[in-house]
Amino acid sequence: MIKNISKEVSEKSKLGGGSSDKKEEIKKSKIDDRATIIKENNVEDKYNDAVQMAQSSDYQNVSHKINKDKDNYAGFWVRYVAYTIDGFIIGIIIIPIFFIMGIIIAVIDSFSESTIVQIILNILPYLISFGVGLVYYAMTTNHYQATLGKMAVGVRVESENGKRLELKSLAMRETIKIVASFFLPILHVIIAFTGKKQGLHDFAVKSVVVYVDSINRARGWVVGIVLGLQAFLIIFGILIIGLIVVIAFTAEIIKS
């Protein structure tokens, strides 16, 4: 009898222990579920905070400075290619203007022998070139932060603190650039040796030229095509000049 009772008690204790383990397991599962939910909520909150930070002006300023620290400034050759493309575009604009002005100048010249008129007619092409260039550079950069040439190589103009330049600053910048290009184009070489890749016109208004995409940088294929084409034309021109010299020298020898 006593043995039977002890046996029953033992079996009940085992059943009770099993029930307790099951409860503990359920409790642990609920805790894990709650922990997972809390973790997911924390991740979502951190994501939302990150989005808000990315949209804030402070973060953009910091990001701008970080990009600058990674040498995001456009170098000499990239800017040279942009300048070459812009020069070609300005040439297309100026050629028909020069054609019309040539006819007008010829008519005026035939009716006037005044020295002052002759001087004005002589400097007029330079004034037209300067005016067209200034309007082109200043207006395109004012609207798009880049000329067509700069767009082609993937760069833009901005102030040293990352803001857009005002029109008056752009006008001053482009005036200095055009004048320097006309009288002392060699001065533009200093772009290659300054920390922020700035020329005289950049120093004057505290501007910089930066890559639009700091990761992919410049559009290398555009730079390569333009530089390659220029190299070809230079070599071709040298060969033609050499051929002309040889022909002329040979003709002189034959005559003698």
Give short descriptive properties of this protein.
256 residues; mainly alpha; 3 domains; two-stranded antiparallel ribbon; 2 strands; elongated; disordered N terminus
Can you walk me through this structure?
It is a single chain. The chain has 256 residues and is mainly alpha-helical. The chain folds into three domains: 1-55; 72-218, no CATH class; 220-256. The protein is 77% helix and 4% strand. It has eight helices and two strands, in the order H-H-H-H-H-E-H-H-E-H. The chain has helices spanning 2-55, 57-69, 76-111, 115-144, 148-153, 167-183, 200-205, 220-255; strands spanning 155-159, 207-211. It has a two-stranded antiparallel sheet. Helix 3 runs antiparallel to helix 4 (115-144) and helix 3 (76-111) packs across helix 8 (220-255). The protein is elongated, with a radius of gyration of 37 Å.
